[in-house]
Amino acid sequence: MPVLHLAIVPQTKEKKKELIEKLTKTVVEATNVPAEAVVVLIDEYSAESIGTGGVQLSGKMKK
Predict the structure, then answer these.
(1) Which terminus of the chain faces fewer neighbouring Cβ atoms within 10 Å, N or C?
(2) pLDDT band per the 50, 70, 90 thresholds, residue 40
């Protein structure tokens, strides 16, 4: 059972639905497992809670 764990800034309900559908489809195509066996977990973090290159993502998004 493939499990995909996605950490991302908050998304709309519609965008999460789209992500789950597309990620599942990609895993099914790559592994030939049934879609019912694919698990997608979405953890949402505020831009203030994510840092890259030593800088908060919220600061990078403002530029």
Answers:
(1) C
(2) very high
